[in-house]
Design brief:
Elements (H helix, E strand, L loop, with lengths): L3 E5 L20 E2 L2 E2 H11 L4 E6 L4 H6 L4 H9 L3 H12 L2 E6 L6 H6 L2 H4 L5 E4 L3 E3 L5 H12 L3 E6 L9 E7 L5 E9 L10 E9 L3 H7 L10 H11 L2 E5 L4 E3 L3 H13 L5 H21 L1
Parallel strand pairs: 1-4, 1-6, 4-5, 8-12
Antiparallel strand pairs: 2-3, 6-11, 7-13, 8-11, 9-10, 10-12
Helix pairs in contact: 3-4, 10-11
Bound molecules: 1-O-phosphono-alpha-D-glucopyranose (G1P).
């Protein structure tokens, strides 16, 4: 049974400066909730109640968010603010949150390797990357876990992207299976130049891995960008026997990118009862005025 999740969160957030000089990018809100809370909620939704953050210096506020805040709870209770009290408490109740420091930023594979003592070599676990936000409430991670339990193989999430974006991701070579949306992954390349990419199917930041990957990660030399890459460790596993790829069939936002972050905010806000109607009304008139102004210029 898969119970543990590892959330690499030691990055400097350079794509999101200047705010990330003092605020961990994982705490930037999507509407009113830190991006990382959606990820921890996704773990809880898939039955993973043990979450390990792999963090770095300057990011301890991230752990605070998942702790109790008794002073704030008391103040809200005294004021009769029940809804707000519930919001403050619920993030602390999502999962048992642990953390380990990466120390040196030696790559995603190295960050995952930091979880070895917590997870152990005999237990399978999930890895979720904070920049990749999936549709809240989706059961995609649960389906990845199901595929892992059925096959015993590592499972990765795949998504089709335009050819000019493949160099930003791990890219997979796949064979179809008789299951809709499920592939055998025969080869993976981390951030290849477009002409060397085996396909336009990229790896999204969700993995379900056996504990045996830790020993492989330890032997994996630095790869693309001089960093230890989980893609390279998976490539070694796939060379022995194909691993499993599940094609994403729910929306995904790259919240580590400014445009993806704004899109996630707008899309999720428009779905809310309190914000959706006034936001959509404002967006309509804003766009109409914008188009008119463009037409005039
Ligand atoms: C990481 C992985 C890459 C994957 C991507 C998904 O890259 O190394 O294989 O496609 O996440 O978001 P990063 O974006 O951390 O450089």
């Amino acid at each position: 049974m898969v119970r543990k999740a590892v959330l690499p969160a030691a990055g400097l957030g350079t794509r999101f400066l200047p705010v990330t000089k003092s605020v961990p990018k994982e705490l930037l809100p999507v509407v009113d909730t830190p991006a990382i809370e959606y990820i921890v909620a996704e773990c809880a939704h898939a039955g993973l109640d043990d979450v390990l953050f792999v963090t770095a210096a300057g990011k301890s506020s991230m752990e605070d968010h998942f702790d109790r805040r008794l002073d704030l709870e008391a103040a809200l209770e005294a004021k009769g603010k029940g809804d707000e009290l519930e919001l403050v408490r619920s993030s602390a109740e999502l999962a048992n949150v642990h953390s380990v420091r990466q120390g040196e930023a030696l790559g995603l594979g190295h960050a995952i390797g930091m979880a070895r003592a917590h997870v152990g070599d005999d237990e399978s676990f999930a890895v979720l990357l904070g920049d990749d936000m999936l549709e809240p409430g989706s059961d995609f991670l649960a389906r990845m876990i199901e595929a892992h339990e059925r096959t015993g193989r590592p499972v990765i999430a795949l998504m089709e992207v335009p050819e000019d974006q493949v160099h930003l991701y791990g890219v997979a070579e796949v064979e179809a299976t008789d299951r809709e949306g499920e592939f055998r992954v025969t080869r993976m390349v981390e951030k290849p130049p477009r002409e060397e990419a085996p396909s336009t199917l990229i790896m999204v930041g969700r993995y379900v891995l056996p504990g045996s990957i830790f020993a492989i990660l330890e032997e994996t030399p630095p790869g693309r960008g001089g960093e230890i890459q989980v893609t390279d460790a998976l490539e070694r596993m796939a060379a022995e026997e194909p691993i499993i790829g599940l094609k994403l069939d729910v929306p995904r936002y790259d919240t580590g990118d400014k445009l993806g972050y704004l899109q996630a905010n707008i899309e999720l806000a428009t779905r809310r009862d309190d914000l959706g109607p006034p936001l959509l009304e404002w967006l309509r008139s804003f766009l109409a005025e914008h188009d008119e102004a463009q037409g005039r210029s």
